[in-house]
Every structure is written in C-alpha cells, then in structure tokens.
Amino acid sequence: MITIPYLTALTTYFSYGLLFAFGQFRDFFRKIFDWWQASNLQGYAPICLGLEDFYIRRLYLRIQDCFGRPIASAPDAWFDVVERYSNDCNKTLKRTEKKSRCLNLGSYNYLGFAAADEYCTPRVIDSLNKFSASTCSTRVEGGTTALHEELEECVANFVGKPAAVVFGMGYVTNSAILPVIIGKGGLIISDSLNHNSIVNGARGSGATIRVFQHNTPPHLEKVLREQIAEGQPRTHRPWKKIIVVVEGIYSMEGELCKLPEIVAICKKYKAYIYLDEAHSIGAVGKTGRGVCELLGVDTGDVDIMMGTFTKSFGSCGGYIAGSKELIQYLKYTCPAHLYATSISPPAAQQIISSIKVILGDDGSSRGAQKLARIRENSNFFRSELQKMGFEVLGDNDSPVMPIMLYNPAKIPAFSRECLKQNVAVVTVAFPATPLLLARARICISASHTKEDLLKALEVISQVGDLVGIKYFPAEPKKQLQPGKETIKLE
Amino acid sequence: MEAAALNFVNATLNWVTLALDAPSARAVVFGVHIGGHLFVEVLLLVVIFFLLSQKSYKPPKRPLTKKEIDELCDEWVPESLIPPITEEMQSEPPVLESAAGPHAIVNGKEVVNFASANYLGFVGHEKLLDSCTFALEKYGVGSCGPRGFYGTIDVHLDCEARIANFLGTTDSILYSYGLSTMFSAIPCFCKKGDIIVVDEGVHWGIQNGMYLSRSTIVYFKHNDMESLEKTLEKITSKNQRAKKLRRYIVVEAVYQNSGQIAPLDKIIKLKEKYRFRVLLDESNSIGVLGYSGRGLAEYCRVPIEKIDIVTASMGHALATEGGFCTGSARVIDHQRLSSSGYVFSASLPPYLASAAITAIDVLEKNPDLTSKLKENIAILWKGLSDVQGLSLASHPESPIVFLRLEKSMGSMKGDLQLLEDLANHALKEESVFVVVSKRSTLDKCPLPVGIKMFVSAAHSESDLLKACSSLKKVTSVVLKDHIRP
C-alpha cells in the first residue's frame, strides 16, 4: 500500500483544486462566447454534456504532448520519437519530419522481441508469403490454418496446460470469455485494480460483481465467506458459481499477485480461479512460464489461465489455456472465436518462433540469456532507483517499476525534461490511477544494455532533482574503485 | 342491583364534582383560570409521552456465527464451470494449408474457396505482400504498447489519414481488432438513459456494445423501413424532453447474418425528420458497393457527412486485420480518450496498417475490381436461382450470397445439422468450400440460419459455374427428402 506524505497530499489537492477552478472559469467564458454563435446542432443533444468531458478539455489537453508520442522505428531499446508542435496551445498537435533518437523506457518489450529478430523475422516473412497477411475469415469458417493449430499446441505446452485457444486481440479475449463461462446468478470477485478489459468482460456477463482489496488474501476470504453465506442479492438463493479474477503482474503497480495464498483460499471455498498473465507470461519465472513458475503454484490448480502475446513475445493476440473440455466448449460458444477474424498468420508465426527461442529449441541459448538479463536488469535498476531516494513500487523480479510523482504539475515536467535528454518515459495520471497517485512507469527490457541503464539512471536522477520527486532520503554513494577497500555507510 | 349501581355512580359523580370544585381547582395561575378539566388533560399528556418514549419492539438481529458460516460454505456446491460436452461441440473446422485465396488447399486437396471474405482478391496480392515485408523488416511484428504510450507508429497515422482521404471524411481512428471496433465505439457515445433503435439482425459485436452501454434498446424488424418509422414515431411521441437525450439508429450496410443491404437514403430521410444520429457498420461494403468502392454512401448517393459515425472491420475487402471508425473530427477526437478498446489495448501491428494503406492504393488505382466483383455475383445468382431445396435470401448485389432452406426442419438445431451435412458433402465430394452461419449461445439474433458464400473478384467464371453445379448435385443428394415437389 502506498502511504502518501501529508504535505504532498495537501499540495496535490491544492493543485487539482486550482486547475479545476481555472477550468470552470474558462468554461463559463466559453458558454458566454458560444451563446453568441448559433450552433448547427438544432434538436440534437450534444455528444458530451457539461462535465462529462471536463477533465479531458481542461486538464488533459494541457499536457497532451506527453501522451501518444508517435515513433518512426521499431519499439526497440533505442527508437526514433517524432517531434510534434502545436499552434493552438496543445489542442491539436502536428507532426514534423524531425526525429530524435531516444532510449525507450516505455514500451512493453520485456524479452527484446520488438524489432526484427534474427531467428523470428525470416520465418515470419516465409509464413507471410505462404499464408498472406490475413485469412479474411473467422476461425470456424475458413480461417483455421495449419499454423493456428501448431500455435495452439505450442502455447498449451509452454504454459503447462492440456489445451489452449488463441484470439487476435488480448482485450477481446477477456471481454468475450467471461460472458460465456458465467452468467446471471453467478458471482465474480475481482481484485480492485484489475484491468479495464476484465471489468468490461465482467459487466458484459451479467453476473454480480464484488471487489476485494488489492492483493489482500484475508480480505478475499472475508468476502467469499460473506457472499456464500448470503447468497444472491434479494433472493438469497445460493450462487451458481464463483470466479475469482486476479492478474499475474499488475501493470500500474508492478506487484506480483499473492498467488499461493489465493489459490489455497479458492480451493477451500470451491471457487474457480481466472488468472490474467498479460504482463507476466514470458517475463518472470526461471524458464519464462510466468507467475505460476515463479511462485511455485501448480498450473493444475488454476482453472483458467489467460495471457497476451503483445508484451513478451513481440506480437499481438491473446490466449486462454485450460482443460481440454473447457477449450472445446469455448471453441463452440465463444463469440470471439465464432465471429472475429482469426489471428494474422505472420503474427502467429512470430509467437511460435519466439516461444522456440525462449525454450531454447532453436539450438541457441539466447532464450535463457534473455530471461537472465531481464531479471538482472530489473533488480539492478530497481535497487539503484531506491538508493537514489525515489519512491519505487513493485516487487523484486518484476520488470515494471512505477516511480511516484503525485503532483499534477510534475507529470509533464518529468516527461518533457526526460525527453529533452533523449530518454522516453511513460507518465500515467487519473483516470488510469487514483487521483492523488500519479506516477511515471518504467518498463525494463532484456535488450537494454548496462550502459543504457546507467544513462537512464543518470538522466532520471538529474530530472528527479530538478522536479523534486526524491521523497526518500538518498543513500550515500559507495565509491567503487578497484583494489581499494569499500566502507559501507548504512 | 340497579339501585346499588346507580348509587355508586351518583356517589362517584359527587366526589368528582367536589374534587373539581376544590380550591386548588379554582386557582388562577398567571391570569389563567385553571378549570378542573386541566388535570385530566395533563394526565392524558403524561400517558402519551410515556407510551411514545417506549422503544418499539424489533425482533433481535442475530448475525450468523462463524460456525454457521463455515457450515454454509461447506454445504455449498458450485455448478461445474462448463456444461457437459455434447457431440456437436466436438466438430472441428477444416484446416487450410495455404493462403485463403480463391483456391485453397484443404486436407491436401485443392478446393474452390467461398469461405473467405476476400471480396477484392487481395489475399496473396504482390503489392500487399511487398509492403508487409518492408514493414516487418523495419518495425518488427508487434507495436508493444497502447496508442497513448509510444505505440503510435507513423504508419498508423498515415493509415488513418489515408482512410479519411479515401472515404471523404475529416478524420478516422484505427482499432486493433475488427470485432472490438463496434463494441468499443458504441459505449463511448451511448450512455445510460440514451435510446438506441437497432435492426434485429445485427451481429454480436453491436449487440454486446449496446449491452455494455446500458442504454435503452429498441429493435425494429429486419431491414423493414416501415417498422423503423413506426418505432421512431413511437419514441419521439413518448419522450418530449429530447434536449439531453441522445438518440441513435444503428444499422449495418450489408448484414452479416442475412446478406441484405440497408436502404441508406430512406434511413437518412427518417433520421433528419426525427432527429436521430446514425451509426453505420460498413464492414462488408467497403471496397464492394459504389462504383469506386467507397461503400454504401456512394451506392445510395448520400453525402457521407450525413452519416454521423461509420465503422468497419478491415478483415474483409481490405484483406488485413483491425478496424477503423470515421466521421467528423469531434466524433473521432472523443474516441481517442474514451473508447476502451482504443485506450486500454495495444495498437495494431504496423505491418497490418501498411497493408491497409497499400490495399486502398490498389483499389483506387483499379476501380474495375468492384465491377468484376459485381459481375461474379450476378453469375453466381443466375446459376443458383434454380437450386432445389435452397432459396436465395440475400440482396442481388451483396457479396455475401445467403442460401436458406426452403422447407425448414422446425428448429434451428435441426436446420443447422442439415446444412452442416450439406457443407461437408460439398467440401469432401465436390471440393467446394462453403460455410454455414454459426450462432453463439450469447447471440440474440432471430434470423434463420443458412449457407453463406463469399464471392471474390478473383474467382474466375469456371469457379463460379463449378460451384453452382456442385451445389445442385449435393442438394439433390442430401435434401432429397426435403425438396418441395
């Protein structure tokens, strides 16, 4: 849990209050101005009423240049960020032809498969020539190729389950699976910080939704006991089934899920577990098999395992792995399987090749090297940032590290100053995070070298001093000189 | 007896009169005459207050004890996660071993492929493959991030500009999956309390989007303009406070579930009369309808500005993946921050975006592709008009040719079984690959099922004639008990 210092909370509230007041002031003038001009929307209600898009118009648009920065090369460790300019105070941004080469600390490129890879890309181009860019058809009609079947087997083996089904997009996987396996009369208990796709899927299913405190197994147990004892709302009939939805790594916190405790509780109360490994598959674990391997949980205990291929495998799409019967049932009823175009064949080939590299089946040890490198990089970076006095969240071994900013003015300051020094970071604010807890999120990749990380640390430290986000006292630096004795100052 | 009672009453009355005439009862306090009756009233008040101050009787609350909760948890038995697997759930679709062009290889045999929505024949087109290869070598496969966090690649912006240019609108927005386009765009604009009037035959993506938006949904009969008019009339007469209420009509250009084409000019007239906004799904009509392939607006000669929001999936004529939405700048800008499928999901892989740009370039340079497609559809219609047991149920110019059973079996399951049989025979014996429309358990579409054939501009005349003769042969074998005499 993040405890925000009292003074910082006060100043953050004050900043937001000021921005809100200023925004209302401008809205008032805009209303007067618009009253003069007739609108051509006679009889139609406006698309957004009043305060619905207040946040967007008055707060977000001021710092719009920190988000949605276009790039002109592959999202590898170093990439080209396109420069943009604005003539009307950030309302519209126009591209220029100039690019700047920046260090990439924002893309989800955990194992370094983002750019053209020596093993994967020739095979991907072969499959493009054989199967073309798309099958133009759904999986149950003419869209299942031999490549899709190979992919599903490969994924099932990798994850450690008997069977798997693959979809073309991770978001749709969650939204279209939950309505199929649970409906009205069922209960979904989800972590309070779950991703939007899970929330959408849960809402679309029609089941009752209850939330438990983020990553707190005792609270989950309390909620389960209460709900089973009470039954369905109003009628008090017993629930048809209960599904607990958790994620492997939470993308805004960088924390690992407390899976062993949660699995034990769910087994005791006979609830089903749905594990969303979007960020953890391929990135953690000794052989990259995700959170189950890292925390020592048997994959047979988790009923439904879901994941995406966008982060560690450098491709696109999502999968569900489970028992053979579950996958068969899903293939028969899931709308994403029946109505959506099947995953693009070159993307499928990229996944197969990258899994082969990770497992070492391509004959080299690049996979093991990548896994070791990302672990080392993440741990090194996190410990160095903490030594410098930043407030960094997340567990050890997790490649996602948020640095707390809190104040709304520090968000664009941090982002722009880092970009000036050719380091590209991602800053996140409301509504993706709670109002007070804005942060900058760093994603480490296996393709970052030690020099890249040291440069990043230097730049972040400088900018951190400038912007004032070193909330903790820094540890004094150890002088590492070869041959001399070092005195540890703790 | 009466005398004693009477005496008793008299005595009581005397005593009371005496008490009331007592000196204390005739006192004057603060200028107020205290009559004797005041004592009775004070007594009454005291009694009332006493009763009011008593707590009402509530049955005591007894929360469940820990032991009782434990028992309930032990007794509870959940349903199994999935229902038991039946026969029909185990059928596997045919596996392709080559690209999904007009001819494909299934199980080692070459078949004529009517199962891919490859309307313009772009699958396997050289130019597309070249541009994809270039993009793969430059950008890799995935884009590794959502659009807000360094997932915006310059090909995405180029693609959006190209699509807007091609269709004649101000701006467009790219989604990374065709299905998610509609079910993210609808909840973005329709919120709780708004009214959506929708055709009953729309596909699942639209149904899910409407369910997620929590608006009031009103269905009208499939492609029936009178039913639409009646519905609009009813709604506007009921709801007079139209100022804050947003109202939408959602239709598809070419319906996936039946192959009908929506009469856009009539819909626009109704929309202007009743002041509704129109959301049009052009997945199957981009590149197909209109003399230059610009879709339903060109086909019905309606200026595109009159349609508020146009969405389409690019997995059909444009032979890539993903979807787009286009309209006025206000509509598109709003989606960039409020559409969940755009903000919370990784962006489209760059090679697919560059394939889309190349597809549009090729289409613009060769407008005869659309006329070739129209010819092919006409040839197929002529050949299939006398097939026994099946009747053509789609619009004569729709690229999805929909064949329905003339005599239904009575239930959807029975129909499906028969049609699957037909399709299997066609594939195995005649090497013609057609598909049966599938319905998910979550789909609420009430339209009948049938056989779908997707016609492509790359089909040659011999392919189409072969398909017609094969279908005739197969229906005479499989449907011989169901053919009307």
Describe the structure.
The complex is a heterodimer of chains A (490) and B (485). Chain A is of the alpha/beta class and 490 residues long. Chain A has two domains: 6-104 and 368-467, Aspartate Aminotransferase, domain 1 (Alpha-Beta Complex), CATH 3.90.1150; 119-359, Type I PLP-dependent aspartate aminotransferase-like (Major domain) (Aspartate Aminotransferase, domain 2, 3-Layer(aba) Sandwich), CATH 3.40.640.10. In chain A, 40% of the residues lie in helices and 14% in strands. Chain A has helices spanning 6-36, 54-59, 120-131, 146-159, 170-181, 196-205, 217-230, 259-269, 291-295, 324-333, 335-339, 345-359, 366-388, 410-420, 450-467; strands at residues 78-85, 94-104, 163-167, 187-191, 208-212, 242-247, 272-276, 304-308, 318-322, 400-404, 423-424, 426-428, 439-443. In chain A, α3 (120-131) runs antiparallel to α12, α5 runs parallel beside α6 (196-205) and α7 packs parallel to α8. The longest helix of chain A has 31 residues, at 6-36. Chain B is of the alpha/beta class. In chain B, 43% of the residues lie in helices and 14% in strands. Chain B has a seven-stranded mixed sheet with strand order 5-11-10-9-8-6-7, with helices on both faces. A four-stranded antiparallel sheet of chain B has the order 12-13-16-15. In chain B, α15 crosses α16 (461-478). The chains are: A alpha/beta (490), B alpha/beta (485).
